[in-house]
Amino acid sequence: MPGRWLLVAWFALPLVPLVLWALANRWAFPAVLPQEWGLRGARTAIEAGAGSAFVASTLLGACVAALATPAGILAGRALALHRVPGRGVVAALLLAPLAFPPFAVAMGLDVLFLRLGVPAFPGVVLILTVLAIPYTTYVMRVGFGAYDVRFEEEARVLGASRWFVMLHVQGPLLAAPVATAAFLAFLVGWTDYIVTLLIGGGRLVTVPVLVGSYASGTGNQPITAALSVGAVLPPLLLLVALLAVRGRRS
């Protein structure tokens, strides 16, 4: 138990200055705490378009999760339960996007997407989905590795349809890995900066892009901190929901 709390403190302590900056109107050296408290940073962030940026990030993360999770389920099931010819090669290809820097990929595809006239949002979703599939595939491969297919076969013998098996057998047994895969895919879309900036060309303003624009200037610490604290909340809520799902399955 002490080790768990030490781990929580290890991750939480670096966030303390961020929260203090988000609640500070003025905090000058060498003061230990802000000299003037307030929410000027949050108000300025809202006026600068934080609301639309959060909507864009949420849609981006949801679209990436909606595409990468089913792809990971199919790939993970095939690799774990079926005899795939050249399984090692297929697994290597699925994990290959992790070996390439996102900056290089985005720079290489930026010109191509511009020539093809691909809109910013679909282009970003497409690339981030490819980058998220390795994570969803790995999680689902582990999930299917612990999955007993005999439950599925027994249900089919008793006359259950394919959809019934999917909803009432596979769904409950694989709820935890599917939720984990979807969470990781959402994080890929929610936290991305480089691909969104390059492929979006400044037309797609998400939370990381807005944070980066303010962090690059001086004197914007309260605004940057307010945006950063706000950016942590949705993944944190999803993580709590994920832990709740995994706890019920356990």
Automatic annotation (TrEMBL):
Keyword Cell cycle among UniProt keywords: no
PROSITE patterns in UniProt: ABC_TM1
Domain (ABC transmembrane type-1) ranges: 54-244
Record's subcellular location: Cell inner membrane; Cell membrane
TM helices/strands, residue ranges: 52-76, 88-114, 120-142, 163-187, 223-245
UniProt cross-references to InterPro entries, sorted A to Z: MetI-like, MetI-like_sf
Gene Ontology terms describing biological process: transmembrane transport
Top-rank taxon: Bacteria
Membrane topology: Multi-pass membrane protein
SUPFAM superfamilies: MetI-like (SSF161098)
Main location: membrane
Swiss-Prot/TrEMBL keywords: Cell inner membrane, Cell membrane, Membrane, Transmembrane, Transmembrane helix, Transport
Cellular component terms per the entry's GO annotation: plasma membrane
Entry-linked PANTHER family: INNER MEMBRANE ABC TRANSPORTER PERMEASE PROTEIN YDCV
Record-stated family: Belongs to the binding-protein-dependent transport system permease family.
Name of the protein described by the UniProt record: ABC transporter permease subunit
Species, as recorded: Lolliginicoccus lacisalsi
Source lineage: Bacteria, Bacillati, Actinomycetota, Actinomycetes, Mycobacteriales
